[in-house]
């Protein structure tokens, strides 16, 4: 869970109207305690929310300081701290925070050395665009640059990966 032990952290939220108040809140909150301003989300009508993660006492203190800063700069709508939130709440707010334990069938597992386990042929058409980009970036000598991979469409990546694997016999 990215350095946060299960149930030993809190989730703080500060909601403002307008970005300047949000930035002031985030700055003050991050300077006031050992917390991480993990993300922000915008909604309609200029409503924006920052999410703060850390230990319970630190998050409570930083949300209080951040809320005060938001009031001075703009309009504070609401602030709230959830001590030891359920994992489903964290997954909902930060979907990328939890990595899957086991790769699903037909999913490529990227090893730490940037090598792909490829014991048998895969059906790449079922992989997400992000998974295809990670796979393409993991290949040494892949015909597209990192920039081209990050902007390539799904169909182009599927075509290039298939062509690359056919030329290399599935090896890197």
TrEMBL record:
CDD domains: BMC_CcmK_like (cd07045)
Pfam family, one: BMC
Stored InterPro entries: BMC_dom, BMC_shell, CcmK-like_sf, CcmK/CsoS1_BMC
SMART domains: BMC
Alphabetized UniProt keyword annotations: Bacterial microcompartment
Main localization, broad class: other
Cellular compartments annotated: Bacterial microcompartment
Domain BMC: from-to ranges: 10-94
Membership in a protein family: Belongs to the bacterial microcompartments protein family.
Protein name: BMC domain-containing protein
Originating species: Bacillus xiapuensis
């Amino acid at each position: 869970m990215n350095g946060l032990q299960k149930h030993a952290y809190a989730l703080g939220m500060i909601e403002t109207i307008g970005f300047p108040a949000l930035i002031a809140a985030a700055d003050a909150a991050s300077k006031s305690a050992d917390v991480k301003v993990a993300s922000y989300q915008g909604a309609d009508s200029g409503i924006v929310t920052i999410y703060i993660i850390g230990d319970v006492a630190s998050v409570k203190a930083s949300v209080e300081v951040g809320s005060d800063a938001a009031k001075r700069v703009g309009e504070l709508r609401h602030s709230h701290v959830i001590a030891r939130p359920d994992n489903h709440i964290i997954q909902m707010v930060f979907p990328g925070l939890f990595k899957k334990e086991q790769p699903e069938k037909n999913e490529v597992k990227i090893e730490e050395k940037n090598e792909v386990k490829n014991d048998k042929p895969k059906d790449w058409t079922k992989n997400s665009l992000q998974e295809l980009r990670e796979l393409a970036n993991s290949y040494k000598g892949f015909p597209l640059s990192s920039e081209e991979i990050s902007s390539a469409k799904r169909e182009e990546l599927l075509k290039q990966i298939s062509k690359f694997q056919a030329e290399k016999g599935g090896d890197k």
